[in-house]
Amino acid sequence: MKPATPGQTVGPFFGYALPYDKDSELVSRAHPGAVRLHGTVYDGAGNPIPDALLEIWQPDDTGRVVQRSGSLVRDGYTFTGWGREAVDNEGHYTFTTLNPGATEAGRAPFIAVVVLARGLMNKLHTRVYLPEDAAALAADPLLAALPEDRRRTLVATREANGDLLWDVRLQGDDETVFLSFPGA
Amino acid sequence: MKPLDDENFDDSHVVVSGAAADTQESISRQIGDIHRAYAAERAAGGPEATQPRLDFAPYRSSILRHPTKDLHHVDPETIELFSPAFGHRDVHELEADLTIQHNGEPMGERIKVTGRVLDGQGRPVRNQLVEIWQANSAGRYIHKRDQHPAPLDPNFTGVGRTLTTDDGWYEFTTIKPGPYPWKNHTNAWRPAHIHFSLFGTDFTQRMITQMYFPGDPLFGLDPIYQSITDQNARDRLVATYDHNVTTHEWATGYRWDIVLTGSNRTWMEEEDTDQ
Q1: How far is B79 from chain A (nearest CA, A)?
Q2: Total structural domains in chain A?
Q3: Is B200 in contact with B160 (CB distance < 8 Å)?
Q4: Is B241 a known active-site residue?
Q5: Which residue in A5, A59, A112 sits closest to B262, CA to CA?
Q6: What's the domain range around A59?
Q7: pLDDT (tens digit per residue) in B77-108
Q8: How many angstroms separate the Cα of A47 from the Cα of each of A42, A171, A172, B67, B191?
Q9: Chain A, 135-164: which have a CB under 8 Å from a chain B CB?
Q10: Where residue A26 sits, what CATH number does that domain have?
């Protein structure tokens, strides 16, 4: 294995470079399956971080991994599975997407997330799971390996209107579980 | 484009009292202490650091923004073993030339930056998105919160994109960025750099980093660069001047190869022929 090139912080000045038109709209809000995934990114003092950037990557609503171009120039019809969103001045983000399906029968559906921010020296990986399938969540290898107070940081809350609420805490008692992978 | 707070001139939301009063000497001493501790760990058989420290107090903004719990090690699952697909619908070939985005020629030193994107196994990362952004030749970002009193260049935005070739090559034509001041401590200056954003074949390989230029006198003073405690690892962020990339009467050339982490996908034979 070659040693990987080091990462560095995304810094403060990505706002004119990385965001683009419809970056966070994986589907149109008018899509019958459209769901809002939203939340706030917090620092260790509990303050919202106004200069974070989130990316999501997910299967479609049937659990299929999509390999289609068009994420950067959305045609309004092609679901590519990937999106990007810079948080607003109050640290809040919103994606319009589909509920991810299970990639295998009985597996807990989740969305892969990368978190970037000024002051955060490298990217962080995490996951946000759908809250509904209790049996699949209980059987999930990652979630099963976590104590309950850590586990819940990875499971979204389904709001009354169908939105998914999921906050990111970079530090502190409710710190989100961040992931490392083999070969990293 | 969204308004974002800027660490250079408005850092009021970062709760570090007196941070701006730190001297370079104090910051450099803290960096030196951390590096000496790392060197001692290495000498005692400790692991080689290949990535920056997330917890690196000399970079003041990291204090409340680094996880305090260990990253949880997990085997990647289906979606994480793939990356989003980008294509020519997404990226026009002219986006790789940052010097032709306006009516006139940007000010500064025209350069080419080229190299290969490889995975940890040495395989080229093919047809994948590379994004860059940078300050202009005077050290000024077009970002509206960048208030460094250096000139904006009406002929330079500082944003580029490209797709790697079948052999993993990327190439940008741009202007050499200038160093710029920031508010981490008194008289803090960032070495000149170009921000890079990269994807691999697996989403686990996602990378955001910064490329630097050889011989920059600010390297030793910069807490962001020095957050990488290992000199060999720091060197991997520095491009090489390459006269074979330099073009006659046009642009000087730099070479910078990027290695992503290992792919965890099971590779088909035909995908793997470039091993």
Answers
A1: 6
A2: 1
A3: no
A4: no
A5: A5
A6: 18-169
A7: 999 999 999 999 999 999 999 999 999 999 99
A8: 5, 11, 11, 15, 30
A9: 141-142, 145-146, 150
A10: 2.60.130.10
